[in-house]
Amino acid sequence: MKRKKVVVLLSSGIDSPVSSYKMIKAGYSVVLVHFHNLTPSSEHVKQNIIDLRDQLKKYQKKIKLYMVPFGGLQRELIKTVPGQKRMIVYRRFMFRIAEMIAKKEKAIGLTTGDSLAQVASQTLDNLHVVYAVTDLDVFHPLIGKDKKEITEVAIKIGTYDISIRPGDDCCSFLLSEYPETHAILKDIEEIESKTDSDKLVKSAFSEAEAI
Prior knowledge:
By secondary structure, the protein is α/β, with parallel strands linked by helices. It has a single domain (5-210), classed as Rossmann fold (3-Layer(aba) Sandwich). It contains nine helices and six strands; from the N terminus they run βαβαβααβαβααααβ. It has a six-stranded mixed β-sheet, with helices on both faces. Helix 2 (42-56) links the parallel strand 2 (29-36) and strand 3. The protein is globular.
């Protein structure tokens, strides 16, 4: 029987590769999507992502990886989005782009490495606001896990040593020291209404590189 596909939003950190593994073990076929910007270490991060994909291929023989340029989109967003709310808006735009890739790949949903309240962007309120941007199902197999549990799996599957290599995450781009932890959907939607969301999303999607 053919496996159903899910699109995984893959960072170079510890959590999302473990989420990818969990979905593979649960019987799904994963397609990986990574968002990157141009920083001094971006080439290193890109190699880390490819290495993570190759490590996950031990559990799924063929894995398509999309590399999505995100820096230009972020530079547009910082013109209108307050620093404390940028992480939430960044993630909503990532979900919009990932949804387009999911439809192209005929995937049934999106998957994240979200673990509840592990970082500021992953409170219940913030996750509700982020997930509201897509009509697809969002799977989060690590939602109730703590860092120790996730790290143990990462070590077991061989992704941990890759994930702890140094490199800049695009999500840290020009954020506030005190990010929003209790976002309100209508407030975020009002901020986003000041941007040309469709144009930004379509542009990033068109520039995505499938590996």
